[in-house]
Amino acid sequence: MKTYIVAVFLLLGTMSFAQEAGSGKYTIQNLDINTPQSDFGTAFYGENKIVFASPRRGFRVVRDVWEQNGQRFLDLYEGLIEENGQIINKAKLKGDVNSRYHEAQAIFSKDGKTVYFTRDNYYRNKLGVDNKGMTNLAMFKATVNAKGEWINIIPMPFNSVEYSVGHPALSDDEKWLYFSSDMPGTIGETDIFRVAINQSGYGNPENLGPKINSAAKDWFPFIDGETLYFSSDRDGGKGGIDIYATKLTGFQPTPVLLNEPINSASDDYAFIINKTTRKGYFSSNRDGGVGDDDIYAFTEEEEVNFKCLQVVTGEVRDKNTTNLLPGAEVILSDSEGNMIETTVVGDDAIFTFEINCETTYRLEGKKIQYTAQSKTFTTSNEADKELKLLILLGEGDINFVTDANGNTTTEGEVEDVKPEGLPDVLPDDIVKLGPGKYAINIDPIYFDLNSSYLTKQAKTELQKVVDLMNKYPKMIIESASHTDSRAPEGYNLWLSNKRAKSTVEYIVGRGIDPARITGKGYGESQLINGCDDNADCTEAQHQQNRRTEFVIIKM
């Protein structure tokens, strides 16, 4: 890349990295308007014009050669776009836009009346320098009048002599201005930021965060709908600076490296593309060019393919106490049981794995002195979906397995042992729910969505529980409360515990010894009809899972 950008933004070393799979298919061509020096940084101007940076031409009394590279200072030019992508009728922009120093990299509003551009920090005939005597880049806004002249040029309010701001880009709705900077709050050497455009001016700059920015240099953003193109010299590219793409909505995928011939072993940057024609331009100093940096035209023949990815996340908790279990190991395996990734959860007991769409996985939680728990699940074809799973580990407990349909079963046979004191012939008021599991036979107690409030019907059924416990004075039971799947698993566990507590309090309040009843919430871990996050169920079906069962522990 040109020494201009290097010196005024940040020093750039020559690096070579291992190649990785790219995306997109393109054809490219060099342009006739390129000079032996640096030409780069295109911007669409209306339907058939383009603006770009090129070395100053002609003779001036004022010295206009930049000492850092011996090349002339850069000015902004415009040209007409031909059908084949070539640019003709190159002419310097009108108005006060071009100063004694460098100008480059512009972006226009859709109506063509507003433009943002990059310049050396030069304003009102004064060149700004930092505490080291260096001049950084700054970003400016101008109005384009009916004659095509750039007037009313003003600096952006977040410019500073102590850091660089430049490379503007606009969101499709023009409510956000994107740019590159090494301002305070930068993650790497330079990051991509955005700032809200509002009626009173501009909001505070926001860093796009570590899913987009890296420890290296990230710059030259361009927005195409919900796709962000940018350049970076991060590890994993083809060498030098490379062009990447990512999404701005939902979960942001890992930035995708564009395929050759867009990227090369040299510096490739300043990518722009027309939303309709899928033709565009980028800049590169690759071998075979005309000058230092050249502008290349391209046609997109196959769009960028963002790999369909999802995220599975959750917590590991003690099944009996619901306490977090730091130090537990969580293992992600494929459907054949081959381990893909493993992690040991920290103090927050949270695990997170990136997974593919339409794939079956096995998730297993382990911890010393606890019985392991496994869950098998199949992802949908919905990109960027977040799955939340709760792993509950119990000491010597049953190892529950959740299948792809959300049905919970157990590994191995469960011995059908009746609770102590339960007669061989069950009375009508006791019912068998499954192997070794017996409960009081009452109508189901259902709860409204997100509620632990006891309805009138629920209180009627709870009175039956009180009557039965008075009939069998040695009966000990557990109020087992469950939720549906329509909330994060951690929340559902909390809600079910709250529901269990409300039923216990009601029964104890009717004169039952607290030692004879306990309450426990199971969240969504024991759905009875497969209505998990991937199922399309009715409200009535979901309500079947929002239930409380009174399981007999001892008679």
Number of domains: 3
What fraction, in percent, of the residue positions are helical? under 10%
What's the architecture of the largest domain in CATH terms?
6 Propeller
Radius of gyration: 33 Å
**What do the pLDDT scores average to?**
83
Characteristics of this structure?
single chain; 555 residues; Neuraminidase; Immunoglobulin-like; mainly beta; 60s Ribosomal Protein L30, Chain: A; 4 helices; five-stranded antiparallel β-sheet; disordered N terminus; five-stranded mixed β-sheet
Structure, briefly:
The protein is mainly β and 555 residues long. The protein is 9% helix and 39% strand. The strands form eleven sheets. A five-stranded mixed sheet has the order 6-12-11-8-7, with no helix packed on it.
Structure description:
With 555 residues, the chain is mainly beta. The chain folds into three domains: 3-302, Neuraminidase (6 Propeller), CATH 2.120.10.30; 309-410, Immunoglobulin-like (Sandwich), CATH 2.60.40.10; 430-554, OmpA-like domain (60s Ribosomal Protein L30, Chain: A, 2-Layer Sandwich). The chain is built from four helices and 39 strands. The chain has a five-stranded mixed beta sheet with strand order 6-12-11-8-7, with no helix packed on it. Strands 13, 14, 15, 16 and 17 form a five-stranded antiparallel beta sheet that branches.
